[in-house]
Amino acid sequence: MGIIVLGSYLSPYTLRVLIELEELGVDYELKLVNLKQGEHRTPEFLKMQPFGQVPVLQDGELTLFESRAITRYLAEKFDGQGTPLLGKSMKEKALVNQWVEVESQNYDRPLISIVEQVVWTPSWGKTTNEEIVAAEMAKLEKVLDIYEVQLTNHKYLAGDFFSLADLGHLPGTHLLVNIGKKGAIFAARPHLNAWWEDISSRPSFKKIMAKTS
C-alpha cells in the first residue's frame, strides 16, 4: 500500500499536499471526497478526521490529518527524493519551520477570510461583505510588507532555496491572485511579486492546477 490522499480539488489544503507529492516525485492515490454532498461529514470519514476536514493522508497504518502536519511528514519521510524541501543545515531547517509558521499564523488567516468573501461566497449565490474584505486586506498588506523586506534579501522565504515554506503559499495565493483578482497587492511589491511569479511557475503547481479546471 502506498500513499493515499483523501481530499478535494476545491480545497487549497488538499492542493498543498498534492503539489508537495509532485515535487517529491512520490506516487500516490487521490480519493476524492465530495464536499458538496457532505462526504466529509459521514461517520466513516469522521473516524479518520474528527473535525470533518480535508485532506487526510493514509500511509500504511498511519492516518494523518492537518495539511501542514502532512507536508512535514512527507518532506521528512522522502527527504533525499525529488526536491529537498526542509533545508540542509540546522539553521536552514529552523528558518523553514519559522516561515511555515508565519504562513499559518499570519498569512493564511486574512488570506482565507478574503478568499471566502471574493471567491467562495459569490459561488454560493451570496453577497460579498466588502467591509470584511477591506479589513482583512489591510491585515494582509501589513504581512506582505514584511514579506517584501525578507524577499529583498533572499530569493525565497527561508533563504536562497525553494522549500516547504514557499510551497505552502501556492494554493491560497492562487485563489487570491488569479481567481479573486487581488494581484495588485503583489504587483505593488516587486520582490514579493517576483517570488510569486517564480514559485507559481513550478511544474508541480501547474500540473495540479490543470486538474482543478
TrEMBL record:
Domain GST C-terminal: residue ranges: 89-213
PROSITE patterns documented for this protein: GST_CTER, GST_NTER
Keywords: Transferase
InterPro entries: Glutathione-S-Trfase_C-like, Glutathione-S-Trfase_C_sf, Glutathione_S-Trfase, Glutathione_S-Trfase_N, GST_C, GST_Phi_C, Thioredoxin-like_sf
Domain GST N-terminal, residue spans: 1-82
GO biological process: glutathione metabolic process; response to toxic substance
Coiled coil: none
Highest taxon above the source species: Eukaryota
Signal peptide: none
Catalysed transformations (reactions): RX + glutathione = an S-substituted glutathione + a halide anion + H(+)
EC id: 2.5.1.18
Cellular component, GO annotation: cytoplasm
Keyword set includes Nucleus: no
Keyword Transferase in annotation: yes
Family named by the database record: Belongs to the GST superfamily. Phi family.
Protein name: glutathione transferase
Species the sequence originates in: Ceratodon purpureus (Fire moss)
